[in-house]
Amino acid sequence: MIILAVETSCDETSVAILKDGKDVRAHIVLSQIDIHQTYGGVVPEIASRNHVAHMTKVFDQALVQADIKPEAIDLVAVTKGPGLIGSLLVGINAATAFAFAHQKPLIGVNHLIGHIYAVSLEHEMTFPALALLVSGGHTELLYLKGHMDFHMLGTTLDDAVGEAYDKVARTLGLSYPGGPIVDKLAAQGKDTYDLPRSYLDRSAYNFSFSGLKSAVINTVHHARQRGEEIRINDMCASFQTSVLDVLIEKTRQAAQAYDVKQIIVSGGVAANRGLRQRIVKEIPDREILIPSMQYCTDNAAMIAAAAHYQFLHEGPHPDYVLGGQSIINFETI
Q1: Which uninterrupted H or E stretch holds 90?
Q2: pLDDT tens-digit map of 87-142
Q3: pTM for the full model?
Q4: What is the pLDDT of residues 236-275, one digit of tens each?
Q5: Is residue 121 in a domain?
Q6: Are residues 263 and 320 in the same domain?
Q7: Which strands sit side by side in the sheet containing 262-266, from one edge to the other?
Q8: Cβ neighbours of residue 82 under 8 Å, at least 6 residues apart?
Q9: For the residues of 22-35, what is the DSSP string, one character each?
Q10: Range of the domain at 17
Q11: Are residues 59 and 203 in the same domain?
Q12: CB count, 10 Å around CB of 241?
């Protein structure tokens, strides 16, 4: 099966072509980071307009890179949410138009499931498994009984971990996106600031990072009022240590409670080098799967991988509406 997938949930315009769930024939990702750095974050309207401006070019590049004709595509997949509504609509309309023009079935994929299946591009998934999904908008622990059989164990009650990184970076006067910069500076500093660890109920798996974010903001504010210098590297190290202590401890608890064979770490924050190093070192009794850097951030290859297993699990549906079932049958619309 050859799948062409489209991902436009935020500010990456991406099209990928995948064969049989693993063979990545094309992987095009056009990032808008340089554009949004001016504003200190993603501006939804600007993101949508840039998707429109570059979508056709990204489609063409993917087909050329894969050296394949549209007629050879078996299935078209597209991110249907969650994400920025304007950005999502650009990708959905482009995928729908391509599928309709070439009379191909279309499948809508949940963006978060795509992140989980990013690991399947390079590793074999073994069940039961546990997924730690960490990104700019999400922080979740999920129990995976099998392909497309997921159960939410816990989620963030306020800020997602990636959002906390960006806000702390802004407080420290660092540029956007904050995650990679804080991660880099943390490796050069020491955990010297007394910041809280929010474990909440230790028997549950929910997360909370707003208190930690506020603690950093207040510490910086009070230091500046007193005319004291903030040691940027040490603050980054202290903040990151606090975040990782909580993420890893909750993941360890869930892995033991559910006796999983694998732990999957996915999402944009899975690119964090501190997290990648510590979780492997501190949970040595479980196999840890983490996507390579190119598949951590938003990309269409992960959407194609998820679509492969979703199609095998669900099969075609006779009547489809994006956001409802899974497959469009063009004879019925």
Answers
A1: helix 85-101
A2: 999 999 999 999 999 999 999 999 999 999 999 999 999 999 999 999 988 999 99
A3: 0.91
A4: 999 999 999 999 999 999 999 999 999 999 999 999 999 9
A5: no
A6: no
A7: 149-155, 139-146, 129-134, 262-266, 287-289
A8: 9, 110, 111, 112, 137
A9: TEEEEEEEEE-HHH
A10: 2-116+297-332
A11: no
A12: 19
